[in-house]
Amino acid sequence: MRLLEALCVAKNNGLIHPLDIQFAHMIAGDYQPVLMLAAVFLSRDTRVGHVCLPLRNLCPAAFFSGLHQGLAHMIWESSGNPKDIERVLLACPVVSNGQTVTPLVLEKKSLYLYRMWHNEVIVAQFIQRKNLLLDVEEKKTRKILDSYFDQNNILNWQKIAVAIAITCKLAIIAGGPGTGKTTTIAKLLGVLIELLPVPQRIKVVASTGKAAARLTESLNLTLQKIHRIDLVSRGFPREAITLHRLLGITPGGQRIRFNKDNPLPVDVLVIDEASMIDLAIMAYLFSVLSHHTRVVFLGDHHQLSSVEAGSVFGDLCYNASNHYSLYRAEQLSRLTGYKVIGREDYTHNAISDMICVLPTSYRFKQSSGIGQLAIAVNAGKAQLSIKILNDNFSDVCYFSLKSAADYQHLLDNCIEGYRIYLRLLQAGEKPHKILMAFRDFRVLCTICHGLFGTAGLNEYIEKMLHQIGLIFAHTSWKYPWYIGRPIMIMRNNPALQLCNGDIGIAILDDAREMKVWFLLPNGHTKAFNPLLLPLHSTAFAMTVHKAQGSEFDHVILVLPHQKISIITRKLIYTAITRAKRKITIYADQGVFQKAVSLDILRRSGLLDKLYANGC
Predict the structure, then answer these.
(1) 240 and which of 131, 212, 297, 426 could share a cystine (Cβ 3.0–4.6 Å)?
(2) CA 51/CA 558 separation, integer angstroms
(3) Beta-sheet strands, E only, within 78-197
């Protein structure tokens, strides 16, 4: 059988996308089977988020994660049972080592699309260039740091994180939910404003509109708590914006607003939810930053990576352990007053000297089920996770999802969760109060289609709410519009100042006209005619991916009744950590265990590039 025919069999079984085959055929034609084999799996891997394809994965055992071995061997034999794949690929004119521009690049036994390789090189070179510690006036810095943190002998990693960030051109602060990342941002900016002699152009950004709005709220609350409102007049930012807005990136637009000759006019750039930034955006960001700009990344490296290819933040945090070189540990000890331990086997000025992991969650007590469940899932402890689900924690509920009765129980629970905001709507409360109530509860799914996906659940929740009279039609609008409909914006619209992920609700205005109301970062509300809205969808149920950057008091997580490879440990962890007070999980126990056991790391060559150059 010819290779193309064998690949079509895999396509018909849903294992390879038609675009993968089209790309491979375009690259290799009909007469280069080894190149076609490599190209089709490179295309597939890139499409699901990997940056490169290690040549060791070009073997039958790795084609389909060890499954479908009969088909895998048929594809291998159809490609001619290749022996020296590296030599064969480098002999192809469309493959190079990166010194010339070719569609594919083969470097260190990994195959890349050229654009992926080029972006990775940009990121690596930036980190190597920026990976320099800064000298500070230590006596003055220690005094300012002490003014922002309680003076005691208990080691405070937030203080160490700030000390790291003010002494680095590039710093990384990682931590799970409730570890105080937003508080750390506010204190870091305050320290910098007091420390640096001239006013700084400071920008605080997040990966999504929803995350930026939440960060804006948190920054202002934290600013009040630390009693430093005076910092606003000295440049402290009161608003966080999206990274796309900062860079001037619009859907379908060309990235030409900034470049190396017209760099981004920012002195201090703080980026929250950095785990959601893909390789292409990170490379563009690094290519337009001025050499003097300080950059601080914050995020949870255990959460889901970006939708597009790459996992730069996760790669950089891969060995994060709060271990530092001897020089760095001594410097941090002098600045903070703590005894920071250094290690002789850690290289001075390496990535480890730029990173601080905030280890303590202030949101969850030790007795908290959510906190224990998140830790167990993150560690891949499937049996312990099941035990926690079945224990009598007040903030963790678990229900099986095997029968029609189980599904009805799920729907009943969803209706109960949304009843509060709909009762407020019927009582004629102000849009602000209704929107705030809607934020307390959310249904999260791991897939989009079917009974257990967002489409099916949104449909059934709507039907039940209509049947019991909690949502109702408007005389001037037809389905899908009705009073009380929650929608999520799916595409940024700078003209309307609406961002992907923003949530609005259809509510009558004072003239009894239906408008869609949104809660703004400053606490005000804004209404739009439904016809003016960008692409949107009903939002009773939303995907875990779309919920990143958001938090809810109570979360219901719904897993499908079959094991699916995209449902992984990071997905479950991300969903659990969206809940602040309660998580309710509907899932088959076997499906949940499989998901917790499955951890798929995105492949890239970034760490190899960095450590090969002494990072």
Answers:
(1) 212
(2) 30
(3) 95-96, 104-107, 110-113, 170-175
Domain spanning 3-107, CATH architecture: Orthogonal Bundle (1.10)
Cβ atoms of 504 and 518 closer than 8 Å: yes
The total number of residues written for the chain in this structure:
615
**Is residue 461 a contact partner of residue 411, using CB atoms and an 8 Å limit?**
yes
| Cβ-contact 311, 287 below 8 angstroms | no
Secondary structure letter of residue 453 according to DSSP: S
Q: What are the structural domain ranges in the chain?
A: 3-107, 133-362, 369-597
Q: What percent of the chain has pLDDT over 70?
A: 97
Q: How much is the pLDDT for 491?
A: 85
- 347 among annotated binding-site residues: no
Residue 613, pLDDT score: 61
- Homologous superfamily (CATH) of 369-597 is P-loop containing nucleotide triphosphate hydrolases (3.40.50.300)
> What are the pLDDT digits (tens) for 53-78?
999 999 998 898 777 899 999 999 99
Q: Is the dihedral of CA 185, 189, 190, 192 positive or negative?
A: positive
Query: Is 177 annotated as ligand-binding?
Result: yes
DSSP string, 339-372: -PPEETTSPTTSGGGGEEEE---SSS-TT-HHHH
Q: Is 178 annotated as a binding residue?
A: yes
Query: What is the reported pTM?
Result: 0.88
CA distance 166 to 164: 6
pLDDT digits (tens, 9 = 90+) for 115-166: 999 999 999 999 887 657 888 899 999 999 999 888 777 889 999 999 999 9
Does 453 appear as a known binding residue? Answer: no
Residue/partner pairs of 430-433 with CB below 8 Å, 24 or more apart:
431/505, 431/507, 431/517, 431/525, 431/527, 432/519, 432/523, 432/524, 432/525
182 is in an annotated binding site: yes
Residue 176 marked as a ligand binder: yes
Cα Dmax for the chain = 75
Q: Architecture of domain 133-362 in CATH?
A: 3-Layer(aba) Sandwich (3.40)
